[in-house]
Amino acid sequence: MDPPRPHMMGDSPALAAMTANQSIMGPPTPLSPSLPVAMTPVMEPIPQLPITPPSSDIGEEDPRSEAFLASAVHVLSTEAAALSCLARLYQTDPSAREGFARAVNAIVASGRAGGKLVVCGVGKSGKIGEKLVATMNSLGVMSVFLHPVEALHGDLGVIRKADAVLLITFSGRTSELSSIMPQLPRATPLIAMTSHAMPSASPVFGRRPDTIFLPTPIHEAEEVSFGVAAPTTSTTVTMALGDALAITVSSSLHAQEGRSARDVFRENHPGGAIGMR
């Protein structure tokens, strides 16, 4: 994924649902939400852990191990904080909330018209895109991954009239994605996941002002957090928002058929431990 850093309504069924839920939602305190009552856990319940870590003599015996664990906890707590900030953004920011609702409606409309979601990205963003496509398909939302370089060499033909396109680019300046944007049909809904909290701050907006924005900012640059600009916190928040999008789209898309995302997932995932449940 690529650098710059943070920062940080129209009427629609998805937006109305989000607004209604806001009145009963508090701050995003639990990092791991409880499972729905009807859902059977994959494994035995994990016992509740104390908030204060237990004391340990490991530092006296092996200082290196203590340093390893301190580093690991720092990464985990930093990424947990970023996810908490992202949840708060989508709970409170009108632009982010409108963008999410519009993205859900665009993908649902595409699916009901016989179209699919085409996801594009390069580098770590591309890997996240591939994972998102797999999740969408398992939830009954037809999706494909399109590498932007291959797109310019013939694979643009995969995009059909009823499709929607999702670009994943943290900086909004990824040259490979910039190259394919002029080639996309103007009638095709374009969604972009980018680090910019406001659409006007993203280079994507200048090329296509009607782009639906899904902001994925981080509260602190990775180089500040960890001393290296490797995509870490940024990939975590982007993947999490992709999961939120997949679950929400699937629930909305299949509700008209009287089916839940869980029903569709069970049909599409007969293998493995999940399929045996």
Break the fold down into its secondary structure elements and pairings.
Blueprint: H1 13-22, H2 58-61, H3 63-92, H4 94-112, E1 117-120, H5 123-138, E2 143-145, H6 148-151, E3 164-168, H7 175-180, E4 190-194, H8 203-207, E5 212-215, H9 222-226, H10 233-255, H11 261-268, H12 272-275
User: Beta-strand percentage?
Assistant: 5-15%
Number of helices: 12
Distance between the termini: 36 Å
The helical percent reads 40-55%
* Sheet of most strands: 5 strands, parallel
What series of H and E elements makes up the topology? HHHHEHEHEHEHEHHHH
Name the shape in a single word. Answer: globular
Major beta sheet, strand line-up: 2-1-3-4-5
- Rg on CA atoms, Å: 20 Å
Number of strands: 5
By oligomeric state, this entry counts as single chain
Q: What is the arithmetic mean of pLDDT?
A: 83
As residue ranges, the low-confidence spans are 1-11, 15-42
SS-derived structural category: alpha/beta
How would you describe this structure to a colleague?
It is built from twelve helices and five strands. The protein has helices spanning 13-22, 58-61, 63-92, 94-112, 123-138, 148-151, 175-180, 203-207, 222-226, 233-255, 261-268, 272-275, and strands at residues 117-120, 143-145, 164-168, 190-194, 212-215. A five-stranded parallel β-sheet has the order 2-1-3-4-5, with helices on one face. The longest helix has 30 residues, at 63-92.
Keywords:
single chain; 277 residues; alpha/beta; five-stranded parallel beta sheet; 12 helices; 5 strands; 48% helix; globular
